[in-house]
Design brief:
The protein is mainly beta. It has one helix spanning 4-26; strands spanning 35-39, 48-53, 59-63, 67-71, 79-80, 90-96, 102-109, 114-118, 126-130, 137-143, 149-156, 159-165, 173-174, 197-200, 204-208, 216-220, 228-231, 240-247, 253-259, 270-273, 281-282, 293-295, 304-308, 311-315, 323-326, 332-335, 341-344, 350-355. A hairpin with a 7-residue loop joins strand 8 (114-118) and strand 9.
């Protein structure tokens, strides 16, 4: 058991990390000492839409062309830890519990949708799930703890499909669909950032959609057995809707999205909820363009970060108002329990959010 002094020090440092994130977002984007993304070159040209931030030193990336990378030194070096049989797969989401244990999702029609797990830092992977239904297409995965998790598929026979694990991803089962409200015509999840299915605490989970006549967020309080659904004010269509959600507790959440097509306008690209997703209100000053990822750093209060192909934005008002602080391209963002935030995207881009004091 660790000495109490060491435990207290870790907790204090975690609080400081979150406070630094909040402080960095409060500084004008171009001011000395403002927030910025510190590049962590990966040496890859893959597009990374899957990201798991474990801490300041450890992060995992999942991307195109069967690419999976891991760093244990804060991004100075990256190791290729992809599954041996993963060549050509599209990895779009990854959930990591530490430097050794992770669960990896490949998307696609039929048996291209798969879930792998590792317990040795990616030296070996076991296949926990391989989709055998040609109508299913899995988009995102989330975990409540190191054993209990869910993954979601686009609608099958008119309802979103959920699979569940209680052994850390070793095995999965399809949950009954009777507790899932019917899907709209054309409604689906977007496998753009690994954030169309997110959880908080031991039982709450949210599912974000678009593609249909309305953009919606589904909510379950019992680990995916029964669901309610609410409309959001984000516009929806074949290329638009809610792409990502993040919750700082069981009530306060942020949704981001828009139209992912380059050059297309994305008004109302963010919304907030204060009642667990029963109602959503459009941000009074949303990001100016489409955003595909959003994260709520630990210990940062109302501060959050959103990213997309045309830039990054921060909020100090729990998502009601946003301000741009970077124009680089990222697809996804994730923040670790110590408050450290990572981002990743096209052309092998990876970075860590940093803050330098003025002067």
């Amino acid at each position: 058991m660790e000495p109490m002094r060491a435990v207290v020090r870790k907790l204090a440092m975690a609080g400081v990390c979150g406070a630094v994130v909040a402080a960095s977002l409060a500084v004008p984007a171009r001011a000395a000492g403002g927030p910025s993304w510190r590049p962590a070159p990966t040496g890859s040209d893959a597009r990374f839409r899957g990201l798991a931030a474990v801490g300041h030193d450890v992060a995992w990336l999942a991307g195109s062309g069967g690419t999976v990378l891991r760093t244990t030194d804060g991004g100075r070096t990256w190791q290729n830890v992809a599954p041996a049989d993963g060549a050509g797969l599209e990895f779009r989401d990854i959930e990591a519990f530490d430097a050794r244990r992770a669960v990896l999702l490949a998307i696609g029609e039929g048996d291209a949708s798969r879930v792998y797990r590792t317990s040795d830092g990616g030296r070996s992977w076991t296949l926990g799930f391989k989709n055998d239904d040609p109508k299913a297409f899995y988009d995102c995965v989330t975990f409540f703890d190191s054993r209990h998790g869910l993954a979601m598929s686009d609608p099958v026979d008119g309802r979103f499909r959920i699979i569940s694990t209680s052994d850390g991803g070793r095995s999965w089962r399809v949950l009954p669909s009777k507790g899932m409200p019917p899907a709209l015509e054309g409604e689906a999840g977007f496998a753009a950032s690994g954030q169309c299915l997110v959880s908080h605490g031991k039982r709450d989970v949210w599912l974000a959609t678009g593609g249909g006549s309305r953009s919606r967020v589904f909510h379950s309080r019992d680990r995916g057995l029964t669901w309610t659904v609410a409309d959001t004010p984000l516009p929806s269509g074949p290329a638009s809707g809610v792409f990502a959600v993040a919750f700082r507790d069981s009530r306060h959440g942020i949704a981001v999205g828009g139209d992912y097509r380059p050059g297309e306008p994305s008004p109302k690209a963010a919304a907030t909820t204060g009642d667990g997703g029963r109602t959503w209100r459009v941000a009074s000053r949303p990001p100016a363009e489409y955003r595909s990822g959003v994260a709520w750093p630990a210990y940062s209060g109302p501060a959050a970060v959103a990213v997309g192909p045309t830039g990054s934005d921060g909020t100090l008002t729990a998502g009601r108002t946003w301000k741009s602080f970077d124009t680089g391209s990222f697809d996804t963002v994730d923040c670790a329990s110590d408050g450290t935030c990572w981002a990743a995207g096209e052309q092998g881009r990876a970075a860590r959010l940093t803050f330098s004091r003025a002067g």
